[in-house]
Amino acid sequence: MSQPKNSPILVLGADGYLGWPLSLRLARQNPERQIIMVDNFLRRRLVREVGGDSILPILEMKQRLWAAKRVHGIDNMEFIHMDVNSDALDLLLEERRPAAIYHLAQQCSAPYSMKGVEEALLTLRNNEEGNMRLLWAVREYVPDCHVIKLGTFGEYAKGGIDIAEGYFKPMYRGRAATTAIPYPRRADDFYHASKINDTNYIAIACQHWDLRVTDIMQSTVFGTWTEDIDGHPELFTRVDYDEYFGTVANRFIAQALCGEPLSVYGTGNQRTGLMALNDAITSLAGLWQDKPEKAEHRVINHVTEKSFSVNELADSIVGSARQEGLKVTVQRGRYDPRAEQVDAKMAFEIESAYVDSHLKQTRMRDVVHKAFVMLSQYRERISRELFAPKTDWHGDSRARNKSRDKNVVVPMRQQDVHRKRAPVLKSEADWEVFRRECFPYDNLNLNPGTLGSPSESVLQAVRKAQSRELLSQPLDQYRRGREVYEEARAEAASLWPSDQHELQLVGSASQTSNLLALAFARLGGQMSRPLRVLTTMNEHVGGIGAFERMPEFRICYLSEKEIREPKAFTALVAGFKPDIALFSHVTYDTGQALPVANWMKEVRTLRPGATTLLDVSQSLGVIAPVFDCADVVFGSCHKWLFGPRGTGVMWTNERFRRRVGALNWSGEPLAKGGKDFGFSPSGGLDFSLYAGLLACFRLYRQLGAEKLRERSADLALYFRVRLTNLLKGHGIRFRVLEPCQGSPGANGMFSIAFSNFDPYPLYDAMNAQKVHCKCIKDRGRDGRERQLLRFGIPFYETQDRLHKGLAVIEDCLREQLANSADHSLRYLLNSGAAPSPRPGVLASSARPV
């Protein structure tokens, strides 16, 4: 298949230590060609998984592309989020037909591959299967393409003879080889074994398919600087220093910055080849045009510093550190995770004809100096705990086998047999696997406070309950509906038990609130005055709206002072004398948890005859409901419980049931108990929703309430910090609304109020890009203008997906700001007196007569 003129250059693994600066250089050197960058952010995920992070702060990919365009005027870079080890690779090569492919998309850590069986399998599958897919795709779609594969100098067996550049003609017992054969290779870990296998696969592909492949035996790369990054922090590449992903030289530099001794593993006599980051990028970037012949498997030893032992490297960095005014020592032999007991430095030469003829080497001390300068202002990002190696490459297999023999049999209760075992959810990788299985949505729904995205188990349960066989039998529908209703109700009652309340499965909170308002309006009709309702200004219209709109009620709203000061609240209750108190556990607009337990207790003390209603729609699934002193507790299940649409739960005590008589006055109730009559749903219903509710409750129990709350809170903090930093970077004035209890985001939600910025265009653009939050742009019940964005972070989301969401927000901000000049996005709100409250609405500061 022919390739078009100026066909693109493809960089697989473009987000990595080498991949990002290489892509930058290629884009600058080849403005007439598109540079297609591909990555699935595996490196970021694995580094986080082991507790590490880059010393230099790195931006998300879309932010990097914006920065490259701003700094260098680059407009020929595009990014594709894709797993190379998938069928998407074939489609990409078929559609774009690149002139050259740089293959850097591999798990690159030897220690990580020895960490455990899962890490070893990930390494083999990612590296070998990805490489094999690439070779077959090139054969099928672009056989004339030049593939530059990043191998490793660690593939070679070091036995004391000079190391050839890939192929050589050895002599043994006086007989010389007549055909060049591969230089011997040997692996001491599963990572290097995967790279050796890759090299063998490449040689076979070139031999049989006439492919053109340059195989780079890359030595250890070190340093932080390239000429493209110079002076531009937004273009930084990652610099890792932990046991798993930090190269030895970069780890030594990080230790020196912290004043920690440089930890030399083993005897330190082992040889290591080195290459400065900028030198590696310069050499790699020019390679694609130097095409090998058809069927040629060309091997290049990519190394400049050829003679260092680890001891000598440590001593060299100590000397450079002292020139920087750093007091550094070397610690030798304390750690030896790889059993590297080399008695003396091995003597051998390294052939590197290509590098010697194409590259002017940068002096090592200059590279180390620039690294110290760049990293010194970020030394607080270095965690000393990450220096000590923890992976045991030579673990005691007997102990492991012994532990496997200890089988523990735990008897299961009969009612637990149908429940699945809770998944192991420790790392971000675990959560991503869980999300793909249970919540496989492409869109990022950060608005579960409006409508959560149901889990797969909920959707499957609903579909199963809507089988044609069942829907054709009316009596069976009622029978099965009652059965699953009782199962779901029993499950909910065990999740949120209350001895003083009866639980019913009902419609959404808005529907339930309407029924409550109608029931009280009927009672109010028997009185000579409207019923007095105490509530907050932060209620959702679906909860308080019916009470506000009906003449049978008179509303009084708590002020900020009464919300925050118990004495002021008590004074209001004593003065207003409410008949009904309706509060939300967590507010709809601000995501704040309110002190409702104290409020309801105070109302019950001062007004024993008042009815207390608690709306838990924004908290159910995150915070356990408060039952003490509550007559009715109700909430929707389609928000933070991620259940079926239009479903909810309601708890009522005996006092309330006696007072109102019933909420449902007609039809035969699903539940037959005496306490349920008039409160249980009745008539023809969508019974499949109860099957969905049962699945929803079981998943909630399976995962554990505390784990889900902590997970949402952690993700909310993670997202809030990065989002607020992003907004600050664009000069947008805002404030994160402070909660009455806890910290912002502690309930998985937080709201941002804007003062000089209209958030709606941003919200609209985010929706178009499949990132959803809540925008509240109106006048509150106090008449003041509100401009809010509310974010809720579901427990099943991952940091990677939140990163992508932030990148979308960044892109939308930039585009809106660029297109708006100074009138659409950034405009100051007109100053002036706050408008008066709406007629008929009584603020608590205006006391009833």
Strand content: 5-15%
Largest sheet, in brief, is: 8 strands, mixed
What's the overall average pLDDT, rounded? 88
Calculate the terminal CA-CA distance, rounded to whole Å. 87 Å
- Poorly predicted runs: 397-420, 821-849
- Structural class by sheet pairing and helices: alpha/beta
| Number of β-strand runs | 29
Tally of separate helices:
27
Helix content: 25-40%
Give the overall form. elongated
Radius of gyration: 33 Å
- Spatial order of strands in the largest sheet: 17-23-22-21-20-18-19-29
Which descriptors would you attach to this protein?
single chain; eight-stranded mixed sheet; 39% helix
In terms of topology, how is this protein built?
Elements: E1 9-12, H1 19-29, E2 35-39, H2 42-49, H3 61-72, E3 77-81, H4 88-96, E4 100-103, H5 110-113, H6 117-141, E5 146-150, E6 167-168, E7 171-172, E8 175-176, E9 181-182, H7 190-209, E10 212-218, E11 220-222, H8 248-258, E12 262-264, E13 274-276, H9 277-287, E14 297-302, H10 310-323, E15 330-332, H11 353-358, H12 364-376, H13 397-404, H14 428-438, E16 444-445, H15 456-464, H16 468-471, H17 474-495, E17 501-506, H18 509-524, E18 531-536, H19 541-549, E19 553-558, H20 560-564, H21 566-576, E20 580-584, H22 596-606, E21 611-615, E22 632-636, E23 648-653, H23 654-660, H24 688-703, H25 705-729, E24 734-736, E25 749-754, H26 760-768, E26 771-772, E27 774-779, E28 785-792, H27 799-820, E29 842-843
Please provide a written account of the structure.
The chain has 849 residues and is an alpha/beta fold. Strand 27 (774-779) and strand 28 form a beta hairpin.
